[in-house]
Amino acid sequence: QSSVPSLTSEPNSIMLVPAGDHYTMTDFATAYFREAQFMQRLKGMMPPEKKSVADLVQHTKLPIQESLLSYSDSELNELATKNFKTLMRFMGDQSKLRNQNEVECIYEILQLCKEKESLHDEIYCQVIKQVTHNPNQESVLRGWLLLNLLTGYFLPSNVLMPYATKFLQLASSDPSSTHHDIAKTCQSNLRKNFMYGGRRHLPFPVEIEALLKGHGARRLAILMPGGVEYLTRVKTFTVAKELLHEICEQMGAGEQEEIEEFVLFAIRNNNKMVKPLRSEEYLHDYLLEDKLVTVTLRRLIWKTPLHFENRIYTDVHYGQVAWDYLNGRILLSRSKEMEMQVGILAMLQHWAKTEQQNSAPSREELKEYTPKTLQSTISPQALQDHVGMLLRTRQPLQPMDAKIQFIEHVMKLPFFGYNTYLVEKVSDNTIPVPCFFGVNKEEIIVVDGTTQAISSVIPLKELQNMRTLRPVSEGGLPGIELSYGSAASPKAIWLELSQAKEMYHTIVVILAKTEL
C-alpha cells in the first residue's frame, strides 16, 4: 500500500493553484519520497536539508534502485523501478532494448498507469524528476511529451495534485523556456481530465508517432447538414464541447443555451454505428486509426428561437430540416392536407436553389422535392399541376428567404422536433407493430405506424432507468428497456429496433442537456 493516500473526490480544492512558495515538488519529496524519509531518520527526525531533497526531484543519469515513493508491496516497487528504466530509454537517457522503439516505450508506461492506479503518483514524480534540470533539451522535450499524455489520461492523487499543478504553473510561466507552451497544454489537459474524466482509450500508434514529430493536432472534416464540410483541427484531448463552441461561433450561435441544443454524432461503417457524443466526451476516443468514422453535426433540441442573420446558420438549418423531411426522419400523414403542404414545400425548395426563381421544376425535380415516404401515394401529375398553380400566383422568393420559409413551414408539422425510430417489436401487445417511437426534449411518444395516432406518452422526467438489450436470437434485433413512472406505480416497456443504441444514447444526451 502506498504512503500517498488514494484518490478521493474533493472538487472544490483540487484544481486551485497554490499561491506563494508552498507546494513545490521539493516540499512533496520531503514529505513523501522514500529517500527523504530515510534521510530524516538518519538525522534523528530532523528535516533533511532542502538542497539534498531538491536533488531527489532533479534529473539523474542513473536508474533508480527503488521506487521514489514508499510502497510496502514489493511488486509495485519492482514495477516502479522497471518503469523508470523504460522512461530513460524513451527520453534517450539510456539505450533502448533490441527491437524496442519510442512508441512501444510510451505504450508500456501508459499501459502500466491504466493497470495500476496506485502507481500514478510514482510515474508523475518520475517524469517530473527527469525533466527538471535535465541538460539535454531533446530528452526534456520527450519527457514533456509524455507528461502531455499523462495529464490527459490519468489524474494524480489528491495529495500530489496541488504539487503537480504548481509545477506546471511554474513551468508555463517562464516564456523563455522551451517547454513553456507544452506546460500550458498540460495544465489544460489536467483541468479537462478532472472535469471530464480523461480519455478512455489509449492512443493509436499513428497518433503517438504524430506527437513525436511535433504534430499535436489532427485535421478533421465535420459533415454539416446540407453536405457542407467544416474543416478543423482536433488536438489529442479536444472534447466535443470545445468543437461545438467553435462551430457554433462560426454560425453566429453564441448563446450557451442554443449551443447546448447541437450535438456531434460519430458515424461508423456507413451508418451501422451512430452515436451522439456527450459534451464531455473526447473526440479522439471515437476517431479510429482507419478513418472509417465520420463526425457530423445535428441540432437535437429545438427550444431556443431560431434566428437567420447568419448565412451559414441558415444553410445548416435548412440542410438538416430538408434532409429530415425528405428522408423520413419527420413523420408525415397521408392526407389531402399533407399533399397541399408537399406542393408548397416543393415550391420553396425549388426557389431555394440559386437562379430557379423564374423556372418551373421538372417532373424529376419534383420527385426530389417529395418525401420518400409519400412518393408512392402522391400523384406526380397532380403535384406538378399544384406547384405550377402556386408558381403562377405567388411572387418568387430569393434563395435565403425561401430556405427560411421552408424551415418555418416544416417546424409547424405535428411531429417536428422528435427524433424518430422505427420499432419492430414492443412488450406491450396493445401497441400494433411496426410502430414509431419519437424522442424530444420533453417526452417519448409511441406513434401508430398506420394511423399516426399517439398511443402512449412517457415524460422524460418520469424515466427512472434505461438499458440496452442484446438480440434474443441470432440475427435478431437489439432492444431497449425503459423503466418509468413513480415508486408507487412503476412501469416498464421493452422494444426491439435496429437503432437501439442510437436511441439509447440520444435519450442520454437529451437528459444531460435538459437537466431533467
From TrEMBL:
PROSITE patterns: FERM_3 (PS50057), MYTH4 (PS51016). This is Unconventional myosin-XV. Belongs to the TRAFAC class myosin-kinesin ATPase superfamily. Myosin family. GO terms for cellular component: cytoplasm; cytoskeleton. Keywords: Actin-binding, Cytoplasm, Repeat. It is found in: Cytoplasm. Residues 59-212 form the MyTH4 domain. One of its GO terms (molecular function) is actin binding. Pfam families: FERM_M, MyTH4. Residues 218-516 form the FERM domain. SMART domains: B41, MyTH4. Its main location: cytoplasm. It comes from the Eukaryota. The keyword Repeat applies.
